[in-house]
Backbone:
């Protein structure tokens, strides 16, 4: 039986998959629970401690999982599936299914070997299925975040070291630089890879790589103060490591350059006890030393670069200072030079409502729009080759994705997200006339 079939069979059978009670009802039930020997009217009855919420589908393995964690070994695994159908427009109608299974272990070297502040991370990633963007729609902004690279690979092998109580954090090894830089977690309340969780102009224009693509690197994070973080590092540029034959060969291929980023992050309202509405703001710049083809003409450029401004901010909060219910806004802007970039400008904006209906405090409703602008040099080159009378202005300026998703948090380890996406000018980056597309689907996330 496939993993997907097993999950839905469990749902149908009424097994351990149980919809969580509303928070208020659960709290009332916990408060009313007393020792068996206490009478109903006894004023001195002592409530039993509330059971620890089940964080994962597989639970605590009869206490083994907790025992391993206490010994410094944390095991983690998760599953994501995204089933979508193109119901109108695009290249053709039809649907696809993609999935990702990720498993790993984190070793606390303080507990294991007495090396305080050190943690070893190991992650293996497996993806399967063909994405609907490639098969049915023909667009650049992947409708399914888990699509692409349908094979098993090593995604992380690193040593992380905290210094001075975590004020300085270092990570060295084989990993995706996007784990640390250039993204907003809020975007993963939507499904399109352009929202979750990095602007694709970062990875599409330089040697920048996001998960699950790993490269050798050193990441440095320094807390200037609790709400102000400086990040930098140095990362390998090696396109051959993106090939399936090198999935478990981290030393394969050849290094063509280095990517050097710097990012400043400001996080108002995130320190304990703060009454300020929480937000995250990032401004960054990166330089890639590798030579690359010059866009729109012959020759090569001696390096690539780009910059970005990202942010999200809660603007309304339901409840007290500790409440996560509320309305947040987010946005992206990136810029890359015409001489080296396929995407020269990137714009994104959206809204996230956390806590939707009574008793649904963890559910989310997200709406977002992204516009990725095609390099005018590439448009002009194609228009000239095709002899278009109106020149490059006759071609689409770029591709736009509009998405709405509802995240149904059934319990701590299961989220089901119905989703609808509208793609305008899906043929913009392939210089083809493709009708605007409408895609419907659902994402399932399970923590094991």
Residues:
């Amino acid at each position: 039986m496939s993993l997907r079939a097993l999950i839905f069979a469990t749902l149908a059978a009424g097994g351990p998959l149980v919809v969580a009670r509303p928070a208020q009802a659960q709290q009332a039930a916990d408060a009313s629970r007393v020792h068996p020997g206490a009478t109903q009217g006894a004023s001195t009855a002592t409530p039993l401690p509330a059971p620890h919420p089940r964080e994962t589908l597989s639970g605590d393995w009869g206490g083994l999982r907790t025992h391993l964690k206490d010994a410094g070994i944390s095991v983690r695994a998760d599953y994501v599936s995204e089933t979508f159908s193109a119901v109108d427009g695009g290249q053709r109608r039809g649907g696809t299914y993609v999935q990702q299974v990720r498993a790993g272990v984190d070793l606390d070297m303080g507990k294991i070997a007495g090396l305080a502040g050190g943690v070893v991370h190991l992650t293996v990633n497996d993806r399967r299925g063909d994405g609907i963007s490639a098969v049915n729609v023909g667009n650049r902004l992947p409708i399914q975040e888990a699509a692409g690279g349908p094979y098993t690979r090593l995604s992380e092998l690193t040593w992380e070291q905290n210094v001075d109580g975590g004020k300085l954090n270092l990570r060295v090894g084989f990993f995706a630089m996007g784990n640390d830089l250039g993204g907003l977690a809020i975007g993963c309340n939507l499904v399109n890879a352009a929202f979750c969780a990095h602007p694709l102009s970062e990875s599409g224009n330089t040697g920048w790589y996001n998960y699950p693509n790993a490269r050798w690197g050193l990441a440095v994070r320094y807390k200037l103060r609790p709400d102000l973080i400086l990040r930098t590092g140095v990362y390998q540029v090696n396109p051959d490591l993106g090939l399936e034959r090198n999935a478990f060969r981290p030393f394969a291929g050849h290094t063509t350059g280095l990517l050097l980023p710097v990012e400043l992050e400001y996080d108002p309202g995130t320190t304990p006890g703060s009454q300020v509405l929480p937000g995250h703001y990032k401004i960054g710049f990166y330089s890639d030393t590798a030579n690359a083809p010059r866009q729109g003409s012959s020759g090569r450029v001696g390096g690539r670069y780009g910059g970005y401004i990202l942010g999200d901010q809660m603007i309304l909060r339901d409840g007290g200072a500790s409440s996560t219910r509320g309305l947040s806004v987010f946005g992206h802007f990136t810029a890359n030079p015409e001489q080296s970039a396929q995407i020269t400008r990137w714009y994104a904006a959206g809204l996230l409502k956390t806590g939707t209906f009574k008793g649904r405090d963890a559910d989310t409703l997200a709406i977002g729009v992204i516009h990725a602008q095609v390099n005018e040099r590439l448009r002009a080159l194609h228009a000239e080759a095709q002899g278009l009378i109106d020149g490059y202005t006759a071609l689409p300026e770029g591709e736009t994705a509009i998405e709405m998703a509802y995240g149904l948090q059934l319990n701590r380890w299961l989220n089901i997200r119905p989703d609808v996406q509208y793609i305008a000018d899906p043929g913009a980056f392939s210089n083809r006339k493709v009708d605007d597309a409408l895609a419907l689907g659902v994402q399932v996330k399970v923590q094991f």
Q: What stands out?
A: Residues 148 and 237 are 19 Å apart (CA to CA). Residues 1-50 have pLDDT under 50 and may be disordered. The longest strand covers residues 73-90.
